[in-house]
Design a protein that fits this description.
The chain starts with a helix and ends in a 54-residue tail after the last helix. It contains 2 helices and no strands. The protein is mainly alpha-helical and 102 residues long.
Length: 102
């Protein structure tokens, strides 16, 4: 028997067993099958892909400093102004007396 026929029998057996189960069990079986399929596809892609040569890291060479290059003064980095947070007035508001009627 070929591998394809064996796989078809296994799938039919899975379908037969899960048809009598709850939906949650059937969904879990489908997740397991999808995971197995994804693993197999990943293995096939890795074996079929041509292997790339690893490149060596290129060292950067420092640029020589010219004696005629302009020199810029070093300025301390500006720090953002801290906004003064106003504290809410927690004092009770005094009642205003109503205007007496004339």
């Amino acid at each position: 028997m070929s591998a394809l026929a064996d796989v078809q029998r296994a799938l039919n057996l899975i379908r037969q067993i899960t048809s009598e189960e709850r939906a949650a069990v059937r969904l879990e079986v489908l997740r397991l099958m999808a995971s197995a399929i994804a693993d197999e596809a990943r293995d096939i892609e890795q074996s079929a892909a041509p292997k790339q040569k690893q490149r060596r890291a290129v060292r950067s060479v420092p640029m020589p400093k010219s004696p005629n290059a302009p020199k810029f003064p070093q300025v301390a980095p500006k720090q953002p102004k801290q906004q003064q947070q106003q504290q809410p007035n927690t004092q009770p508001i005094q009642r205003i007396k109503p205007i007496a009627s004339k």
